[in-house]
Structures are given as C-alpha cells and as structure tokens.
C-alpha cells in the first residue's frame, strides 16, 4: 500500500479527533470512518492502530472503539514541556530570523486576525500551530516540533477546545502572538522571556473555565495541583 495513503488516513482521522469533529467518548468504527472520509478500510485500520498508541482512542473488547477523554494530567505535563523548550527555541530563532521568515509570519498573523473575525475555529487553531511551528523551523528544530505534535496531543486537544468556550475570546491569543513576534523582531530578550512565560502559562489560568464548560470531556486530575 502507498505510504501516502496510510499517512493521509492517519492525518485525517487525527485531525478529526483533535478538532472535535469526533468527540471525547464518541464511538467510532472503521466502517464509519471509511465511509465519511472516503478512505479504504485497510489504511483506516492501520491509522487507528497508530492513533490508539498515541492515546487518542481506546478499544474496549465486546464494545467498540471510542475517542478517549482528555487527560488533564497529560495536558499539564505537555504544557510544562513546552514551557521548558519553547522559550529557548524562540531565543534561537531570534538570531536566525530572515526577511523571508518575517514575511511569512506577517501573513500568518493577518490570517489569524481574519480567522478570528470570521470565528473560524479550525482555521484559527491551525494558524496558531503554524505560528509556533515556524519558529522551530527558523531555529532548525523541526524535529523537536514534530516530536511535540506526536507526544503533546492531549495539550493540543485542550488548546483546541479552549477556542470553543464562550467568554474566552481570541483577542488574548492574538495580542500575545503579536507581542511575541514584535519582541523577536526587536531582539528584545527580556521582553520575549516574559511574554513566552505568560503565553504558555495561559493554559493554567484558563483550565478550570474550560473544564467547567466541558466537564464530560475530561478525566479528573490524579495528582495534586
């Protein structure tokens, strides 16, 4: 089987889970996914095996396959990892930013604003991802970014869910992205450090609000906070 077909099936199914097209606790099946996504049963089956290993689905014998709940412990651990890694990546990117990178990031920021104005949640999240991922690329740390996308799926689910909660407007994210980008362009190391800490701490500030609004989507914390 073509590797691209396998990857396409994996990418599409994982996207549906992270973007809440398939909801936590929802029962899914090879047949349903094959039909709705117009994919062959074999690549779907292989993709589900990979996605199960990542903890996004679970197979319950004599019952079926279900999208897992969001594990809040894993969300918090994922945020901790990002807070340890990303400020250093940003500092590295600061020394390597070219006019071409700046143009690309400017375009991304404009598209973020447009997506926010049109309340395009999927598009806004994807642009948010691209914004952060671009700095890993600038710093020559694409492998780390890919590792994070593979291992930080619970944090990404939380971040995507946050966009669905009324009252948590997107202006906060847009403003923080603009300030981070400006600090990097201005070579302002101290400001960048503070801004990155605030940005990556936002998940902790908003955690209870998100969990209160979608209580059925989460497993409860198993460790003291």
From TrEMBL:
The entry's keywords: DNA-binding, Transcription, Transcription regulation
PROSITE patterns associated with the record: HTH_GNTR
Domain (HTH gntR-type): residue spans on this chain: 3-70
SMART domains, A to Z: FCD (SM00895), HTH_GNTR (SM00345)
InterPro entries assigned to the protein according to its UniProt record, in alphabetical order: GntR_C, TF_FadR/GntR_C, Tscrpt_reg_HTH_GntR, WH-like_DNA-bd_sf, WH_DNA-bd_sf
GO MF, one annotated term: DNA-binding transcription factor activity
Full protein name: Transcriptional regulator
Gene source species: Limosilactobacillus secaliphilus
